[in-house]
Amino acid sequence: MPAPVVLASSEWCARAASHASRARALTAAHLDRRLRHERHPVEDFLWTYYSVKPSELAKWHPGAGVRLAEAHDRATWKYYRAVGTDPISAGNADRRVSAAEVDVGAFFARRGGTVDYVERLLSETLSRPPRFGCFGLHEWAMVYRMSPEQLRHTSLPLRIGHAATDHVVETHPIGCSHFDAYRFFTPDAAPLNTMRPTRETQPETEQSGCLHAGMDVYKWTAKLGPIVPGEVLLDAFVLARDIREVDMRASPYDVSAYAGIDGRPLAAVAIETAAGKREYAHLQRGFAERGDALRRRVLDAIAAARAAAAPDAQR
Questions:
Q1: Tens-place pLDDT, residues 200-242
Q2: Going by C-beta distance under 8 Å and a sequence separation of 6 or more, which residues neighbour residue 36?
């Protein structure tokens, strides 16, 4: 069993500060809108569908198997514990201040089932080839045969109108593999899907070409809390943000009134056209690669947590 990695106070405090600064930059626009009671139908999804608060996103964790020197305050955090003592100089006398680390034993005792599920889901997702032929039609199936007042985003018009939107759904094969997208299909659209994903079969159907599966890497990372390094959590948030933008650009909604990450108006990915399909598949491939890299980092964090928990289990 390898000894814990020990981070000096200067090192881990700098990493925590850098993390908090990055989190503030990523959440500033959302917080400003919230103060003004303004909605953003593209980005609000990250704060309504996913339950992570900006304050939680700003908390840095080193991950399991890492000991933070001179971190007696950190030892009071949930799923942390004080371990050993570190001598530091205080004037002419020496005093000893506790180090802290993630209490993996306590975390597994409370959240072990979640860890098992996330590990299985991400591992099985990585084991199968991604699919790039869905063209984001899940969003179109969510508005199929709906009247304007029934739409989820009533403030957004449909880009090509209701009749044309329904025609796209009726003339394209729909093969949505993601349960949390499929469950929002309209009653008329659900039978058109070539798959019947369920919560129980999610580990068997998830594949990394799916934009919603890529966004959900953020959800699974957040659920693992302190055993995953903070840098992984923020990278997963950025991926979810980037995917959400494309998800809505490729949707039947007209989102051109809103600015994207680059500050420019959001341009449609017109998946009803051949060019739009090519653009969507190209973007999908990039997201699949980024998502798979993050899945591996999360699995590495789980493996480190299991290794760190082994001595506690033996005791």
A1: 999 999 999 999 999 999 999 999 999 999 999 999 999 999 9
A2: none
Q: How far apart are the first and last CA of the chain?
A: 14
* Residue 149 pLDDT level (bands cut at 50, 70, 90): confident
CA atoms within 13 A on the CB side of 216: 18
* Residue whose pair of structure tokens reads 């058109």 in the numeric block: 192
- Residue 122's Cβ-count burial label (10 Å; 0-12, 13-18, 19+) is buried
270 contacts: CB under 8 Å, gap ≥ 6 = 276
Contacts of 220 (CB under 8 A, 6+ apart): 118, 121, 122, 298
Residue of 204, 199, 202, 240 whose CA lies nearest to 127: 204
List pLDDT tens digits, range 50-96: 989 999 999 999 999 999 999 988 989 999 999 875 554 444 444 45
Per DSSP, the residues of 41-64 read TTTTHHHHTS---HHHHT-----T
Residue 193 phi, psi dihedral angles, 5° rounding? -70, 135
Position 266 scores a pLDDT of: 96
Q: Which amino acid is at 163?
A: A
Residue 290 vs residues 42, 68, 85, 296: alpha-carbon distances, Å? 21, 29, 40, 10
What pTM was computed for the model?
0.92
**Rounded Cα gap, residues 188 and 166, in angstroms:** 10
Residue 304 clears pLDDT 60, i.e. is over it: yes
